Amino acid sequence: MELIVFDLDGTLLNRNSTISNYTSETLKLLSKRGIAYTIATGRTLHGARTILEGHCFDLPHAYKNGVMIWHPQQRRFSSSMTLTASELENVVGACIRQGVSPFVFTLDEDDTSTVYHPELKTDAELALVRTLGIEDNVNMLGLDELPADAAVTHVNSIGVPEAIKAVMRSVEDEAHLVAYSGLAWEGADWNWLDVHHSDASKGGAIKTLKELLGLECVICFGDSDNDLSMFEVADEGYAPSNANDAIKAAATAVIGHHDEEGIARFLRQRFALDEA
Questions:
Q1: Which of 167, 1, 195 lies closest to 100 in space, CA to CA?
Q2: Dihedral of alpha carbons 252, 256, 259, 265, sign
Q3: How many CB atoms lie within 10 A of CB 260?
Q4: What is the spatial distance between Cα 5 and Cα 11, in angstroms, rounded to a whole number?
Q5: What's the rounded Cα separation, in Å, for the pair 77 and 71?
Q6: What are the start-end ranges of the H helices in the chain?
Q7: What's the CA gap between 152 and 68, in Å, rounded?
Q8: Can you tell me the distance from the alpha carbon of 50 to that of 119, in angstroms, rounded to the nearest whole number?
Q9: pLDDT by 10s per residue, the chain, length 276
Q10: pTM for this one?
Q11: DSSP characters for 132-171?
């Protein structure tokens, strides 16, 4: 049995961060054929919930690059890995020094999430709130209200590339942290930042999902550095033509552009879905 694992942004989603009609129909064909599929994304559940609704993503999902696995049938998280107080202090301090706002995500006892952040400074930070879907789906409080014993799962931020790179350099000295960055929006000079525990990865999440589901073969799709660990453990890994060079080099093959339904078109051919 095969498991298909999709990254979302820059891969399954188009430039509008939505699942196109053609891709939606492709997912329905996969479901009809009994081909298992799920996601491994850098997004939070709250930032993906609306996008995935109605597209039969019924199997466990990997969020925040493997920090958490969401079980939609039981509506619970598992496999959470949290930051220590000193690690969090380093990340938040580095963000503040570079003039970017840290969004500190916590996992509450009832498996809900609260996001703590300072006063937002830029339109890009406001846009990040909307993109992540956190303004409507989770509690948002001031950074000064963050409890000392909070279970911090990850920190997000957004800023100009130079500022984000400086924050990443500050995180390099933390042995148990990993930082990823990439282009926030096509055609815009903003980079996103994601910092979480180094033991969490999409690759580790895939191993867990294989065990949970009893599946043997994994076919994955991704476009950014945070997908490399997924490509390392998958049996097949495919990169859309918009992917970065590192992902293309690690891929089984490079396929069509994400904004031209490259993944859906590949899947239709790979599994002869139009002949079903």
A1: 167
A2: negative
A3: 15
A4: 11
A5: 6
A6: 21-32, 45-52, 85-97, 123-132, 134-137, 161-171, 202-213, 228-233, 245-250, 262-270
A7: 12
A8: 26
A9: 899 999 999 999 999 999 999 999 999 999 999 999 999 998 888 789 889 999 999 999 999 888 889 999 888 887 667 899 999 999 999 999 999 999 998 887 666 678 899 988 888 888 777 765 555 556 788 999 999 988 898 899 999 999 999 999 998 888 889 898 888 776 668 888 999 888 888 999 999 999 889 998 999 999 999 999 999 999 999 999 999 999 999 999 999 999 999 999 999 999 999 875
A10: 0.74
A11: HTHHHHSEEEEGGG--TT--EEEEEEEE-HHHHHHHHHHH
Hey, what are 30's tokens?
């996969």
From the list 211, 198, 183, 249, the residue with the least C-alpha distance to 10 is: 183
Residue carrying structure tokens 């009609």: 21
Domains and CATH numbers, the chain: 2-79+200-275 (3.40.50.1000), 85-197 (3.30.1240.10)
